[in-house]
Amino acid sequence: MTTVADNPVTSFPKDRIKVLLLENIHPVAKEAFASQQFQVELLKGALKEDELCERIQDVHILGIRSKTHVTQKALEKARRLLTLGCFCIGTNQVDLDAANKRGVPVFNAPFSNTRSVAEMILAEVITLSRQLGDRSKEVHAGSGRRWRPAATRFAARRWASSATVTSGRRWASSPKPSACGCSTTTT
User: Is the whole model's pTM more than 0.90, yes or no?
Assistant: First the structure.
């Protein structure tokens, strides 16, 4: 006996749902949609408003990053749009009021940018280890004394392990300072 859970039924055939992913969104997103039998188109770059208006007409799901601007004009042309996903930190490149009026939910994926978070963690570790906040304050106050830091060393494995906890699996696959010959030792 087949149950609904074994054979999910949708009110619209999944193989007719069109997904448009812009700005070189990671291929894993395409694979995830394709595995559900959606029609997926992946484009490397952003589209200007007129190009987007033309391409979005029969799209059901739109995935963008930060360079594509989804305006009221584009949303008016999107006669079949069911949802819009922003694979970036915010949703400020989407006219949210226009999307709301059309009943199009807008989502974002703030963790899709973990490589930038990992880079920020590394920069903060270096900033803290060199006490740059204190040095900046001294320079701006006019003392401008020459600073010779005490021997400061931190192992790559220490910051990598804490960053992995913070940023997830994406950090683990990114290049480490030791792999690129970077040195974090000051004397």
Answer: no
